[in-house]
Design brief:
Largest sheet: 2 strands, antiparallel
Number of strands: 2
Domain IcmF-related: 1-92
InterPro entries: IcmF-rel (IPR009612), T6SS_TssM-like (IPR053156)
Order of helices and strands: HEHEHH
Distance between the termini: 8 Å
Oligomer: single chain
Protein name: IcmF-related protein
């Protein structure tokens, strides 16, 4: 998870309230000096995070297929690629 965030951190600028309101003067309704870190913006989600989560889930599937190919053991649902994808998405 941390590596995934690090991989996009420097590619997306932080977003201020002014940026989010497209230059509209929102000071009557909202005031803050806080910013949303760029890695947690929609642009980051669509431009890297979503693909990184898919890649991690795909890698998990390949690892499981390789490990289980010689074994008849069933995999725990907690370890499934789908579960990993859901956990990473929820955590993000």
């Amino acid at each position: 998870y941390e590596n995934m965030l690090k991989s996009v951190r420097r590619n997306f600028a932080d977003v201020s309230l002014e940026d989010m309101t497209s230059g509209t003067d929102a000071r009557r309704l909202f005031t803050t000096n806080e910013v949303v870190p760029g890695m947690f913006t929609r642009q980051a989600w669509e431009g890297g995070i979503q693909q990184a989560i898919d890649k991690a889930a795909s890698s998990r599937r390949e690892e499981i297929d390789w490990v289980l190919s010689d074994s008849r053991k069933t995999m725990s649902t907690d370890l499934s690629p789908e579960a990993l994808k859901a956990r990473l998405t929820r955590r993000y």
